[in-house]
Design goal:
The chain is α+β, with helices and mostly antiparallel strands. The protein has two domains: about 180 residues, 2-Layer Sandwich (Alpha-Beta Plaits); about 55 residues. About 45% of the residues lie in helices and about 15% in strands. The protein is built from twelve helices and seven strands. A four-stranded antiparallel β-sheet has the order 3-4-2-5, sandwiched between helices. β3 and β4 form a beta hairpin. α1 packs antiparallel against α2 and α11 crosses α12.
Length: about 260
């Protein structure tokens, strides 16, 4: 029987945290550098890899990979140590963070690459810079600024390893369009369960329901697209319809082109 996953599951996570009342959590570059120092120390303690990050003035994004079920401990150390540093430096008291950090568990590579684009485009969305990689407090920013060294906890980043693969740079430079932004938000809302030792998204609708009214090719193709959006794989849809996965892939591409 499927069961709800714990937030601390090992694997890839997208983390977001903001300052209380959306106030600035970094007042200068030195603060951002201190946060990265604390991040890397915590990564070393808890054996976590950083795959991407973006430090904005009043919030941060982290794309990390945990190797054991210790996400809560890892995040507690980062947020607590940085809050101590910040409050002491600026002689302030009270909460620094708006609340508990938000996190989303990532189970497929397409979602992961969408997040790379989303995170790296944050400074552009805020109209701070015109091109990705120009802002120095993202992973790509450090990779492209030769005078900066990539932080130690991101040495094994998937973004760092694959940036020079064919097509990756062009992909990253494309901001998310409205449809992709909606799909990302829908992805973040999906529940994750463990079934037969595999982690899967909970499907909103059974395949039988997706295809109950598909009496012709246009309606069938539309149902295929909706089933894929619901989290079913192309292979699962192909097996249900008794067709090849290549045909499902062709239909998907033709609809989205």
């Amino acid at each position: 029987m499927a069961r709800r996953l714990r937030l601390d599951l090992d694997g890839f996570h997208h983390i977001v945290n903001r300052g209380v009342a959306r106030s600035n959590i970094y007042r200068c570059d030195e603060d951002k550098e201190k946060f990265l120092e604390i991040l890397c120390k915590s990564c070393k303690t808890y054996k976590v890899n950083v795959h991407d990050y973006c430090l904005m003035d009043n919030h941060y994004h982290l794309l990390i990979e945990t190797t054991s079920q210790n996400l809560s401990l890892f995040m507690r150390q980062i947020n607590a140590n940085y809050a101590i540093y910040f409050n002491k430096k600026y002689k302030r008291t009270g909460h620094l963070w708006q609340g508990r950090y938000k996190s989303w568990y990532i189970i497929n590579e397409a979602y992961l690459y969408t997040l790379f684009r989303y995170i790296e485009h944050n400074p552009l969305k805020a109209r701070m810079y015109n091109r990705i990689g120009e802002y120095p407090f993202t992973l790509l920013g450090t990779m492209l600024h030769k005078e900066q060294e990539v932080i130690s906890c991101a040495k094994h980043s998937k973004l760092k390893k694959e940036y020079h693969y064919k097509g990756v740079q062009e992909l990253l430079e494309q901001p998310l369009n409205k449809k992709e932004q909606q799909e990302l938000e829908e992805e973040q809302k999906k529940k994750i369960v463990e079934q037969e030792h595999e982690f899967k998204q909970v499907k909103e609708i059974a395949l039988e329901q997706h295809f109950k009214n598909s009496n012709d090719l246009p309606s069938r193709n539309s149902a295929i697209l909706e089933a894929l959006k619901d989290g079913y794989t192309q292979g699962e849809v192909a097996r249900y319809l008794g067709v090849s996965a290549a045909l499902i892939s062709h239909i998907f591409r033709s609809i989205n082109d």
